[in-house]
Design goal:
2 helices, two-stranded parallel ribbon, 2 strands, alpha+beta
């Protein structure tokens, strides 16, 4: 991948089961195509994580019946 901004559009991203980034990067990914369906672990770091972002990620994972480990 050329940059982190390109990660959400990469075919490889769909295979991710774990992902770590700053909360702002995760928010940007949610603004695009969302998180990969196979994703099971999300790791935040580097800056404060707004509670609304945690709620958005949890809501995105719930329809499939499987949660995400924090």
């Amino acid at each position: 991948l050329g940059s982190l901004e390109q990660i959400g559009s990469s075919p490889r991203f769909e295979a991710f089961t774990a992902f770590g980034a700053t909360p702002s990067m995760l928010a940007a990914l949610l603004g695009g195509d969302g998180l990969p369906p196979r994703l099971r672990a999300v790791m935040f770091g580097g800056e404060a994580c707004p509670p609304a972002l945690v709620d958005r990620i949890a809501a995105e994972r719930e329809p499939g019946g499987e949660g995400v480990a924090w």
